[in-house]
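Give me the fold.
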Amino acid sequence: MPEGGCNPHKPRGGLQREGQGIQDERTDGSDLRIELTGEFSRLLGRGYEASVFAMSAKLALRVEQIPQQNGEIAAAAVVAARSMGLNVPTVFQPCRWDERDALLMERLDPLNLLTRLGRRPYRIQLVGRLLASLMTTLHQVKSAPGVPSLIDVLAERAHRDPAKSERFGPLLQLARSQAGTSSLLHLDLNPANLLMRPGTRDWVLVDWCGAAVGDPEADVARTLSTIAAGRAPSLWGASAFRWAHPASRGLLARSFFCSYVGRRQVPSDRLTQWYDAWTLIWPTQESIPRLEELCADPFAFRRFSARSHPQAR
């Protein structure tokens, strides 16, 4: 999984500038006045695709690592997800910074759920059920203006990474075969992208820049492949070794998997095809277990297969 959490190092790429910080000041219960002042340099977190910087006690700036045109996509996806009652970050406006996309948004607790899980591994099944609940709600969103199709997102990712472009072939083929589906997809829903809103116990789903509209099974399979192949944060120490153990990954995958299919009917063959296609883009593809092996419970997989409908979407 993408590394998250706090990072004490200074930002790179010219982000430390005089006169470009932001200070917010509430004039009543809902209005927010934003003014440019001072400077900002505190890095709250850095992942593969973006870095998040503190702008003030209430505001943060998410800056993409590479030039992309996806700030507006994230803002549109957040609006669509909020329509179904999902806890998503408040995005004030997409903008550009040093020729990179950026989002001005509310500041959240940078300690993500994956890091907290490393400290409390006994909650792993609760986390799996939480992921399933969020994803089930997300896939009920059938209208997301401004969010591109899954075909376009996968084609853009293949173009962005020529070394892996051939590996995206099976994913694009599946996406084209299911071009008529229109669920909102996050495409990176995992514990590393869940942050807590300060002063509450609400988990907020972040990192919407890769969102798409398409086949919901692609989203489920993406999460399962991330659980199977994702890398535990190095800051965990001994906890990272426990997380990397196949039994830990299997327990999280099984709790997510069983909870999701208990809420929604899923075509097993198509989900397996999506899972196999996603594993091709991971550098450790040779060591990734098959879906039924990852779930590690033949009875759960058998129930899942029996519940599936060949004509389902």
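The first strand starts at residue 22 and ends at 26.
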